[in-house]
Amino acid sequence: MQAKGNIVLYNTRIYEEENLHPEQFYHKVKRVKRIRTSKHLKFTFLPTSAKDLERNLKLWEYANGNLNALNYDHKYFIIMFPEWLYLFLRFSTYQNVMDCITGALTGLYAGEPGQRQKIESKLERSLLLKVKENFETHFSEFEDFSFIVAEDWDLADSINDYYFTKRKRFMSRFDYFFRDKCGNPIILPHIYPIYEPRYENSRFAKGSFDVPLVNSYFSKSDWKRIIQGDSKDELIRMESEEEPWDHWKKNFLKDNNLSVR
User: Kind and range of the H or E element at 216?
Assistant: First the structure.
């Protein structure tokens, strides 16, 4: 599990899920050789359902110290966050996180009319209503904001002079709007709504809204057999890895003042 440019959080309090002493918990898992590892877990900046919102909330809780927040499905031992996302979640209230998401999507809705149908059809309804409210209040003059494509390049340039003038106004408007809506500027380069050389790696400008998170976990059946039962399963599976498990064990022993026996 590569940590460069990332923040790796080890759940060394996972024993609390079963009211076990750390030493009892370690005794149950010490035979395990590998742990299931995937990129299926995600934080999304385009929540489409209550489930997406719940997962975002639980990831915020996890980043802020509630390391058992996500254990309603899999039991997560390790989650690796891109550093920028971790710092955003760790130093923002959850309300601020939500304000940043709706603020960024408002900018996308205003600045990229081609994305409006996608937002209207996919975005979770309560957030969509907030985005539309923001748009009407702050960006209504950009209702017809679009780049015109024409076969006659001279005509296209003439028409689009107006677009580029308006684009500068949009960028200035969005910069101030986002500053006032979101108190954590670290997120801005990653969710800028239109292409801008200052933020050329913006996910939004590339149509990407989900951030996959490398994670290591026990499935429900793993947990039932190994933690709640007495299985000696070593969890050697195609999707299992040894390195993250070794790192988790070292951190678990250190954080709980245990020695290997």
Answer: strand 210-218
Token duo for residue 120: 């209207």
pLDDT in tens, 168-182: 888 999 999 999 988
Helix (H, G, I), strand (E, B) or coil at 213: strand
Task: Report the pLDDT value the prediction gives residue 147, as an integer from 0 to 100.
Answer: 46
Return the structure tokens found at 37.
């590892």
Sequence letter at residue 253: L
The answer to whether the CB of 55 falls within 8 A of the CB of 46 is no
- pLDDT band at residue 167 using 50, 70 and 90 as cut-offs: confident
Nearest-angstrom CA–CA distance, 164 and 143? 15
Q: How far apart are CA 34 and CA 28, in angstroms?
A: 14
Query: What distance in Å separates the CA atoms of residue 223 and residue 231, rounded to the nearest whole number?
Result: 10
Q: Is the dihedral of CA 143, 146, 152, 154 positive or negative?
A: positive
173 vs 41, 142, 167, 249, CA distance in Å?
A: 34, 11, 10, 50
Contact 35, 218 (CB under 8 A): yes
Q: Given a cut of 70, is residue 261 above it in pLDDT?
A: no
